[in-house]
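User: Hey, quick favor. My workstation is busy. Could you predict this chain's structure for me?
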Amino acid sequence: MGSGQTIHIVDVDVREVWNRLKEDPAAVLIDVRTRAEWSYVGLPDLSSIGKQPFLVEWQTFPDNRVDPGFTERLSSMLEAAGVDKQAELFFICRSGARSRSAAQAMAEAGYVACRNVADGFEGPVDSNRHRGQMAGWKAAGLPWAQN
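Assistant: No problem, here it is.
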C-alpha cells in the first residue's frame, strides 16, 4: 500500500462475471452496497452455481461515509472462507462507482485480481430516471432475489 502507485481496476461485463463465477471455483462476488439496498433492491443469486455473494458495505447508511474498517473486515471474511489473495474478486454495487473504490482498496491490501462489475447491479438511470432496465446485473437477466 505504501508504494503510492495506483492499481488499475478492470471493468468486467456482468455476463462475463457470471461465466467466470461459474467456471472458476475460487472466484467470488463481493456486494458492497448498503444493507438497505440488499433488502429492498435485491441481491445477485448465485445458488445455482453453489456460491453466495460476500456482503460488506463500502459506505455506511444513512451517512454514506466510507467505512474505515472495510478492508480489514472483508479481508477477515475472505480469509475465514479460505479465499486466497490470488483469487479473482468481483466487486459489485448499484452502478459501478463504489465497487471500483472498494476493489482499489482491496488491491492495495494485496489482493491481486480485483475486478469491477461494469454497470453494477442496477446500471444507469433510463429516460424515466429508473435503474435496472438498461444495463447491469438485473437488466442482463442474471439470477437475483429479493428478501
